[in-house]
Amino acid sequence: MSSFTNGLICKWMPDIKKFKVFIPFEYHVGSEDSDEIIRIPEGYLSDLASIPPPASWLIPKLGKHAQAGVLHDFMYEHHLYDRKTCDLIFLEAMEVLKVPRLKRILMFRAVRLFGWIFY
User: Fold this and answer.
1) Which parts of the chain are beta strand (E)?
2) Judging by beta carbons within 10 Å of its beta carbon (0-12, 13-18, 19+), is residue 59 exposed, middle or buried?
3) Residue 57 exposure: Cα atoms within 13 Å on the Cβ side
4) How does pLDDT run along the chain (119 residues), one tens digit per residue?
5) 3-state class of 5 per DSSP?
6) pTM of the shown model
7) Residues paired with residue 10 on neighbouring β-strands, in sequence order
8) Which contacts of 100-106 are long-range, i.e. CB under 8 A and separated by 24 or more positions?
């Protein structure tokens, strides 16, 4: 199973309405010992999860999925992979973080349907 090297340590920056990553982390794609590594640097800015206000009662910005949201934002912003691969890695990362199955399926389907707007 894939892995994150550190937990998510970030701070809300109200003036820009984003979270700032304070401790860099890496994500090993596919397995813990994978050479395919995504590095999220200190100082990276993310909204954690791009949840539209009407759905925020069901899936808040903060939660077990937050670190996967930062990873997904970074992959989209830097076009590390094609959009579908980014979305599949997001799904994999949520599983690593033990996000409940129904929530990760809903979030995955949401990025598949609407992610093109941000990619």
Assistant:
1) 3-4, 10-13, 18-21, 25-28, 37-40, 45-46
2) middle
3) 1
4) 788 999 999 999 999 999 999 999 999 999 988 999 999 999 999 998 776 666 666 676 788 999 999 999 999 999 999 999 999 999 999 999 999 999 999 899 888 988 787 77
5) coil
6) 0.91
7) 21
8) 100/64, 103/59, 103/65, 104/65, 106/58, 106/59
